[in-house]
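Methods: example folding runs. The two proteins below were folded one after another, and each record is reproduced exactly as written to the output file, sequence line first and structure-token line second.
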Amino acid sequence: MADKIIIGTLPHASAMRRAAQVAQRLRRGWDVLIQSFSPGEVGAEVHHIRSAAAKRRNVAPIEDALSAGRIHLAVHSLTELPAQMTPGLYVGAVLARDGAGDVLVGHERLTLLDQPSSARLAVFNPLQLAQVQNRYPNLRFMFRGESVEAILAKLSAGGPYTGAILPGEEVELLGYGQMIVERLPEAGFVPEVGQGVTAIVARIQDRANERLLRSLNDEASALMVRAERAFLRELEGDQPLALGAWARPAGEDMVIEGVLAANDGHTLYRMRQQGRKADPETVGVELANQFVQRGTRVLAQEAMQANNRYN
């Protein structure tokens, strides 16, 4: 292992703060430098729901540098990575997942149940839109393709929204935790695959990194994430698809919830799978097979067409 570790990440605020968290832990034993890379496509920091191909393009500059040995590690939100990793690279560690769910933020301390019909609530992606509209059809939710940071800035400035549904961890990373009014339960509002997880990517050939990666990895979070990403791997393609999954332990087993949504807010399919915690990939694949066996391949194509204009 080199005396100095170079971490690559994307330049937006939450990515830089993730990298800083990893760097802080590594500085107990190494000198650490954080290097930011522009995303591989314009506007990619507003990630919403992206196809596997779009995710690859987004992180390509960082992966190229990692593959070439110009940096030692890459740090991302796990939502930014395709389920099928670039050959030669792997997710070597994930930090402990403190919370995967979405939150309601706003100035008024009103929960979703207490919101007036005049409320104007921003949502971050089509997956959120479908779930909250199905649960709260009397409320007005607005999806305009903005980043979490942009929505929070507008809320802080007084408009045009009265509140917003956003990924909770991103809100806290950006320093807006005081605006959280309500935390939505993951079982009822299934988050994007990998939401709330910081992933550290490394080269497979760099065996000297293994001790370092073990020191960073949270095994309990990694098990749950492996099931979620196995589910995503089976269904993710080169068209954008609003898929959500959330895995949780259940004794010696694990339970994973899966959701497929279209951005019209009226098309939502939800399924659940339970299996052995010791074999998380099988549990994730079995959940994906439920969607396939029940004919949701056709439904997935409909959702892809509906979501296409946001990719």
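Second run, written to the same file directly after the first:
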Amino acid sequence: MQPINFCLITDTHYYNPDALGRRLDGQQKTLNDSGAIIDAAIDKFIAMPDCDVMLVGGDLTSNGDRESHDELVKKFRRINEAGKRLVLITSTHDYEQHSNIESAAKGKQIAQYKLEGGAEFKPTITTREELRGLYNEFGFSDAISEFEEFSYVAQIAPGLRVLMLNDDGDGYVGDDDSSNGFTQGQFKWIEEQIAAAHAAGDTIFAVLHHPVMPPFSFYHHFSLNDMHGGKNNARNRDFLADSGIRLVFTGHTHMHNICHYTSPSGNKLTDVNTACLVGYPAPLRICSFKDGVMDIRTECLTDADCGFSDGAMIELYDRTINKIVYSAAHDFEQFVQEANGFSVRRHQIEPHKWLITRAGRFLEKATLGTLGTLFLCRHKLSKSARNVRIVDLATALVRNVFLGTGNYSRDDDVVKGIFILAEKLQGLLGKKLAGTFVADIPALFESILFDDGTDDWTARIEW
């Protein structure tokens, strides 16, 4: 048996600046230049020998405007014209429900859609019902089976099928107040498709947009409704594992993470969460399946691939993190918009506006040495660690979380300084934080710095 090779990208968040105007914001996404990144990914895929299928895991556009959809379809058609296949799902960023796009279309200008030069953002909305027709040629038209137009089964190659599972809930809002899940009919259809694949002797895996498992240890504490199924996440996760799905590819978080899970019934499930294509580090998952084994690795686009100057993508990414601290100190409305890009919502932070503003002003100037003085442990910090700016350190730590597998050493003086301060904070605040997800402050930083030791860039899955 020859290997079956395919690649996967997700969160392409395409934005058409030629039709809509250049955006001032983009959070950690390179929106104005998203077209160049998508073109580079397509070029890379077309040039891959013996790799004929690209999977795309949803959030195709930035805001669901028709101007961006129409141009993205043209880009994707290059794959078909090259004799290869593109198989995709849509998700919540792809139609009018997302982020007040409908209000913007009607002329209401909101902070999230600021354009260069003060121009007005005037998109044409796309309804959910229109998406199926727009992307018919990219997986839907030759599906083995389809559920209510947006979920379907694709035969990647003889012996290998993929469940392309739309999990925007068809507008369904259950008792968990989340639409990021499956309808009841979808559960039954999924079971039937898994059984049909097994009866045919085929291996089957799944692609859905929202993460089945948290990409880092405390993600679900503040972003549960951004996970698949919301408050029903554990139920849906166990359903997939116990129904015979060994592997799911997900997106949404913009984090690069691989998480392994065993259900209470003893069934294994691996969630390969893939970072946003149009932000640093612009990753593609490259996969090869043979004899019941899937090997997965990560390749990233370079600045040169996209026609950017050296370091442009990481510079934008780091500038975004710095902007969060600046806006916390000086522009709370902008801070709300920036936080939204990291799945933290207005209702979660607005009650703490006073504290956030003052913390932002403090963090703008503070160093690890400043914190050491404040908590009476400066003498324990090395001289090199004392001079590290908190803003620079926060930028590096956030980047570490989003990139997955980090390169921090426990012998590093800055890392040692972080844990000295974490232990001090634990002694001061431990009782007050009891019962919260930050109850163990050193453990929190352990997760941020070292994850759980899993390699988030490569994996081998066996059926």
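Comment on the second run: The first helix runs from residue 17 to 20.
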